[in-house]
Design goal:
Number of helices: 4
Distance between the termini: 43 Å
Structural class: mainly alpha
Largest sheet: 2 strands, antiparallel
Number of strands: 2
Helix content: 40-55%
Radius of gyration: 23 Å
Strand order of the largest sheet: 1-2
Order of helices and strands: EEHHHH
Length: 126
């Protein structure tokens, strides 16, 4: 997992400004980058516009995937973009198997047709 975070140096200790998903005593490598300057902010704007123009988030063929990942890694290393998790997934499932079964039972007993059939009917001919 690679993550770029912001931290403050206080009393000889780097203090992250947001919680980290690390195990106690886990070792990590730290790369120090200076706080954003106007120039870096401008570079970020240019990179973000380029990313939109190039549509780097779209589906790419397998051959281009490595190139895309290399470009994004270079931007991450330079501090021009930040890696953000797609989902903040908890370590444990928030719903127990019993709760899931009860929910399925309740939803399965709703009168009428399944929602998928209703959507297909309303969508009409393709």
């Amino acid at each position: 997992m690679t993550e770029t975070i912001t931290a403050i140096y206080e009393n000889g200790v780097l203090r992250p400004l947001k919680p980290l998903r690390l195990k106690e005593q886990q070792r990590v490598k730290v790369q120090l980058l200076p706080e954003d300057t106007q120039e870096l902010a401008l570079q970020r704007e240019v990179v973000h516009q380029w990313l939109k123009d190039e549509d780097l988030l779209a589906e790419w063929d397998d051959e281009s995937l490595e190139e895309r990942q290399a470009i994004l890694n270079d931007f991450l290393t330079a501090g021009l973009i930040e890696e953000r998790p797609w989902l903040d997934v908890p370590d444990e499932d928030p719903v127990s198997p019993e709760e899931r079964a009860e929910l399925a039972r309740l939803l399965g007993s709703v009168p009428g047709k399944p929602l998928s059939e209703t959507i297909i009917e309303e969508r009409g001919e393709w």
